[in-house]
Amino acid sequence: MPFELSLQVSPEVAENEVLLKQAVSRLVSVPTAGIATVLPLKRSIDARQRLVKINLKVLVFETGELVHTTPSFDLPFKNVTQSEPVVIVGAGPAGLFAALRCLELGIKPIVLERGKDVRGRRRDLKAINQQHVVNENSNYCFGEGGAGTYSDGKLYTRSKKRGDIDRILQRLVAFGAHPDILVDAHPHIGTNKLPQLIEAIREKIRELGGEVRFDSQVTDFVLSGNQIKGVTLQQGETIQARAVILATGHSARDIFALLHHKKIAIELKPFALGVRIEHPQTLIDQIQYHCAERGPYLPPAPYSIVKQVQGRGMYSFCMCPGGVIAPCATAPGEVVTNGWSPSKRDQATSNSGIVVELKPEDFKSYHKFGPLAGMYFQQHIEQTAWKLAGETQRVPAQRMVDFTQKQQSTSIPATSYVPGTTAVELGKVFPEFITSILREGFVAFGKSMRGYLTNEAILHAPESRTSSPVRIPRDPITLEHIQIKGLYPCGEGAGFAGGIVSAAIDGEKCIEKVAQEWGISII
Q1: Regarding beta strands 267-268 and 108-112, do their DSSP bridges make them parallel or antiparallel, or are they unpaired?
Q2: For the chain, how long is the longest CA-to-CA vector?
Q3: Does the N-terminal peptide bond of residue 300 adopt cis geometry, omega within 30 degrees of 0?
Q4: Rg for the chain, CA atoms, rounded
Q5: Helices marked H in 250-309
Q6: Are the beta carbons of 271 and 312 closer than 8 angstroms?
Q7: Which helix (H) or strand (E) holds 40?
Q8: Which residue has the higher pLDDT, 74 or 54?
Q9: pLDDT digits over 324-341, tens only?
Q10: Dihedrals φ, ψ of 240, to 5°?
Q11: Average pLDDT, the chain
Q12: 100 in helix, strand or coil?
C-alpha cells in the first residue's frame, strides 16, 4: 500500500525525482530500487533560516504497486435545458461557480455579464494600456471571468472555514488548470492561462443547456412587493426568474447605486486603500531567500507583511512575484492600479498593494451619500490621481524613500505599468492621515525587511479596489437579502468573499440555498 510521508529537503532535491527518491529511501530505510514513485501532495517553502528548505508531504509507491499520478475528477453535471432558471448577474468566480453548481443540482443558470468574453476583453485592455481609453463595461474588472482573469489568478485563501477549498481547486483542474494548484501552499494559475480555463467553463455551461450572455448589463430589478421576479437589461429586455444571484464584483458602482435608489438595504463597509509598489524581483529574492541569487530551483520570492501604524493595519495585498502593474479603472476620469503575474512569474519586477485599513468615520465628509460614502471617497481619490497624472491613464508615482522624506522625485525610471508614470508627490493624492500612515509604515517595513526601503522601489497611486466599499446584507441562514426574497447577494461585490476561491465557494453556497428553497436535494 502507498504511504504518506512528510519531509524537508533542499530546493534542488524537491525538483529532482531521482534525488527525491534517494531522500525518501534514506528516511524510511527502503532501498531506492524499492521505491517506484514519490508523488507530492503538499508543498511549501520555508525561508525562515539561512538555507531555504522545501516542506513536502508525499505519497510513496513502492515497487510493484499500481501507481496513480494523474488526478481526475468527476463532473456530475446534468442537462438543464428544460429546468427552471436562476439568473446569475456577473460571470466572475462567484457567478461561474454558481452556474456550475446549478448544473450539478439540475437548475438552469442564465449568466448575465455586462462585459465581453475573455477574448473580446483583450482589445479593450490594449486600448486602456496604449490609448488610455477606458471601456466602462470591458476592462480589467468587468468581463468574462471577472477581475481575476486578467489580474493574476491567485488561489490562496485563508477562508478555510467558508467551505471546501479542495473542491474548488479540483474543479479548476478539471477545466484545465495545472494539477500543481492542488499541491502548492500558495496556488496560482497565471493571467496567461486563465482565459482558456474560463472559456472551457463557459462552453460546458452552454453545452448542458445553461446560458452565458455578454454585453448584458442589468439596469433594474423586477420586484413584486418583497419578492424578486427578474431583472431588466440595458437593452430593455426583462428576464424572469424567482431567484437572482447578485455576483457583480467589488467595482459595480452602478449596481450599488441602483440598490440604494430602490431603497434595497445596503451597508457601508470598511475597506483598505493605498499604493502599489514595484521592486526589482532580484532584490525581493535577496531579502527573502538570504542569498545573492535564488538559483534555478526556487520560484520568484513573494512576501507578506503587516504592521500596526497609528492604530491601523497597514499591510501588503495581492503580492505578485515576477509580475507587472496594470491600469484597472472602470470609468473615464479615474486612475486605479492592480497587479498580476503570468504563470511562470518570470517578469523582472515584483509588485504588491500596500494598503491602509479605513474606518467608517474616515468617510464623514461623504455622509450625505449614506451607505455609499466609502464608494464616493474611493472614487474621489481615483479622480484626483487622474487629474494629477495629466488627465490620462499615466499613474502618479514616486520613489519610495523620497515619499517617506516628503521629497519630490526628480525622475521616475520605467516601470512595468504600460501607460506610463507621472512624478507626483503622493501626499497630493491621499488625505493626510493616509499619507502619514504610509510614510511611517514604510519605514517600519524597512526595519523588518532589510533592503525593502529603497529608492529603487516605485510607488504607484492609488491601489483602491481591494474589496467592496459596501455590504449587501443577507440572512445568515437562507443567504437571501434581508429585505428581498429570492435575491441572493453573493461574492466579493456583496462583501462576503475576498478572492477567487472564497468567491467561488460563496457562489456554490448561494445556489445550494436556492435548491433547498425549491425542494431540490443537495448532492
Answers
A1: unpaired
A2: 74
A3: no
A4: 24
A5: 253-261, 281-289
A6: no
A7: strand 35-46
A8: 54
A9: 999 999 999 999 999 999
A10: -90, 140
A11: 94
A12: helix
Amino acid at 91: A
Rounded to 5 degrees, what are φ and ψ at 281?
-60, -35
What's the distance, CA 94 to chain centroid? 11
- Give the three cell numbers for residue 497: 468573499
Residues present in the chain in total? 523
Q: For residue 414, how many other CB atoms are within 10 A of its CB?
A: 8
Helices in 430-517 by DSSP H: which ranges? 432-448, 500-517
8 A C-beta contact, residue 89 and residue 218: yes
Q: How far is CA 19 from the centre of its chain?
A: 36
Question: CA–CA separation, 316 vs 319, rounded Å?
Answer: 7
**pLDDT mean over 175-204:** 92
Do strands 218-224 and 227-233 pair parallel, antiparallel, or not at all (unpaired)?
antiparallel
Q: CA 145 to CA 108: how far, in whole Å? A: 19
Other Cβ atoms less than 10 A from the Cβ of 70: the count is 6
Give the β-pairing of 218-224 and 349-357.
unpaired
DSSP string for residues in 111-173:
EE-SS--HHHHHHHHHHHHHT-PPBTTBSSSSSTT-TTTTS--B---S-TTTS-HHHHHHHHH
Evaluate if residue 162 carries a pLDDT over 80. Answer: no
C-alpha cell, 493: 461585490
In this prediction the pTM is: 0.95
Report the distance separating Cα 350 and Cα 287, nearest Å: 13
Residue 107's identity, in one-letter code, is I
Cell of 364: 464623514
Hey, which residues does 154 pair with through a beta bridge?
A: 188
